[in-house]
Amino acid sequence: MYVAVKGGERAILNTHKLIAEERRGSKDVPELTITQVKEQMAYAVDRVMTEGSLYDRDLAALAIKQARGDLVEAIFLLRAFRTTLPRLANTEPIDTARMTIRRRISSIYKDIPGGQVLGPTYDYTHRLLDFQLMAEGASDGIEAELAEQPVDPDMPQVMAILNREGIIEDETPASNEAGSPPEEPYDLTRESPSFPAGRDQRLQNLARGDEGFVLALGYSTQRGYGGTHPFAGEVRFGKVDVEIIPEELGFPIVIGEVALTECQMVTQFKGAKGVAPKFTRGYGLAFGHSERKAMAMALVDRALRTEELGEEAQYPAQSDEFVLYHSDNVEASGFVQHLKLPHYVDFQTEIQMVRGLREKFFAGQDKTAAE
Amino acid sequence: MNEKRKNNRADEPFAAVSTYSVDGTYNFGYLDEQTKRMIRRCILKAIAVPGYQVPFGSREMPLPFGWGTGGIQLSASILGPKDIFKVIDQGADDTTNAVSIRRFFARVSGVDTTEETEKASVIQTRHRIPEVPLTESQILVYQVPQPEPMRPLEPREMETRKMHAYEEYGLMHVRLYDDIAKFGEIAVAYAYPVLVNGRHLTSPSPIPKYDNPKMHEMAAIQVFSAGREKRIYAIPPYTRVKSLDFDDYPFAVAQPDDCCGLCGADDSFLVEVILDNDNNRMYVCSDTAYCNERQDKGHIGPMHANAAE
After folding, report:
1. Which residues constitute the domain of residue A254?
2. Do A335 and B66 touch (CB under 8 A)?
3. Taking Cα atoms as reference points, which of A86, A114, A89 lies closest to residue A100?
4. ipTM of the modeled complex
């Protein structure tokens, strides 16, 4: 006699309760607040906003709390919420040249107008565990000293300096004829990707792409799988105004500001038939303070421009289909983990087929032995 | 329109329903009306060109990609308040993800759900076609992981799109021939490629090839959707669906020489259940609704509780 197992629905409801209980952890420990996550896990919040494609620190913090610190799960939560939001308006393009600078460095000049501004960075910390942080309140008294003078409000982009010499390519997308109005940028959240993918599609995809994946791909181009000899022309982090032009007014008004990290990579280009040697650009942009992501994105952006610049594409980071189809961690995580779903019907057909093939195989062996 | 369909489905199934979900949090069917309209347009295009993969602006759903988001978006776009919805995974209504998807729609659209195949107006499925023949008043929604049948042979979408455009399917025929040369048979057990309406090479989704013949001239509308891959395709009612084969190696289906341990059926797709550590096993119907109905009618298999010892 055999009794089929039932009760999937009850088991599912119970597992929801169990994960909620485990998320809360020991009741002896005060519950984590959204404000705490927002204030003290700011880099996690930045990553979730960037890959979640939604600039909302509170909701990103909520997603991180709900996901028990699993950032890919938090990104998924934020994305699923984002799709339900109505579109109220399109903003004007942001102007990062007018960024309120918190940090800005260039590796291609010793000094630049506006200066090198280190700002907050782990770059020169020695990575030693700080055991003082084990005790609560130990860092309450720390305050950085204010500079004697505020940061220079005029902080030109290093690319503009190169541009004045005409030694770097223009920023205007190649597809746009000079003087014609810019095309509406592709929106991967509304349309499926289309190949060959334009730079707008690629940049949007890279901005939303998994930091680990983009990092590894960018790294692969440095190690020889598509060498592009990059220089960090400029990395800047700070706040930028967001403007819209309401139809009733006809002129831009500021509706808020967003914190951004921007990276402009400069890459050598030897020139092609009829094109003079010059420097080319790779561009990276991320919400919040996300330098690793912005820099890796800039490397991959440049790698993906291989064919457009008349070079031969032969490595993974240079293939738009490879990069765009595999960079999204919400898609990748879902498909990898869907293997947990029941597959017993297909497996049944495979078992039967493999049994049949084995019978044939051994029958063939016996026949050979008999001969 | 068929009389029966009129009665079974909502009077105006494609009219915008601007009500809210049962708990008032989300729009009816979760998706906003613009998105549902976009998806319905893609369905119409897909039906107009049977087997052709229509790109669509797939949305992020609150369930993971790879877990039925394509099928969920289709169902969300075609379900009206009067529809009766059935969800199966592996042919079973009680598998975890089928339960989860059914609960999702009960929450966001409040439609009636059923386990009985005949009562459902919309059936969302993963990996199976129900045993009971479907009717003109029904829509079968397939969840599809990979809509491109040639993807394992050619990873680049730009290339496979060209092959479809030129109806250049030699790659697939060579792949099948290769199996015959190596194994003496076509070693494809599921997701067995089909030619729809004599034109488009199409993936039947990972259903066992046992189910392929059911797709041919099916009375119900068959719609397929891959959320992660952002493609919708369809097979209109009474359309030719041919499983690829060769004249001297015709398409064939093998079934275990056994019957369902619970209902005794020998005309349904069987899956094996391991009973003990000695690898003793029995077969049961993968279509639980079919099996339950047979048991209710008094059919008893050798492992049934009421079976004579």
Report:
1. 96-119+151-172+191-333
2. yes
3. A114
4. 0.88
